[in-house]
Amino acid sequence: MRAFFAVLPLLSACTINLASTAVGTDEATLPVVDLASLDLDVGAGDLVVTGSPDATDITVSVEVWRGFGGDDQDDDAMDALRIELRDEGDGVVQASVFFDPEMPLYVADTTVTVPDAMELWLTDGSGDAALSAVAKVCVGDGSGDLRIRDIAGDVLVEDGSGDLEVSSVGGNVEVTDGTGDLLVAGVCGDAGIVDGSGDIVVDDVHGTVSITDGSGDIFVGEVGDVEVVEGGSGDVRIE
User: What is the third-level CATH fold of 33-60+113-238?
Assistant: First the structure.
């Protein structure tokens, strides 16, 4: 049993659902041959993407869940589930998970495993997401908590609502965040943050930190340099 709605702490990356039922699973796999990046598009549901040094395939695994009602539509939901995984050429893989036709009472939780040398380009609808151990991350996220960890290169995030954590990044970080608390830590390069509302914590950034903030408290720990362009409302503390 799980539910569609939850209140989550900043560092949590899973949804605790109030009432739903597992319906079924499906999976698609594509061998990696001269592939450099994954362009991933998912709708409603939780998402986990993990890079592995041992992976030789891109694997997309999906578990379908039903909310209240819709008991007689389980077979229809599994028939409507689409997992598209194809080589677009020029080193790019396109992956999509969706229902066709749409199934409003169902969500698809998605787990993706890729080689850790791949870049990830993600468009995410709603639901929590955890991304780790890939070469680079570029994310457009709608709603839900988002955790990004252990990225070798740059991280670029446009986030709508929900808490956001970005940590252990080998390159630069650029974040445009709507609502929700934000943690940025362990960045080897620079960190640029444009934030709407919610508290911000930034620590252990080797380069320059630039923050433009609407509302919420700001804490900046050990960084190379810092510029708070606009503090908005809320306390600002710089160590």
Answer: Pectate Lyase C-like (2.160.20)
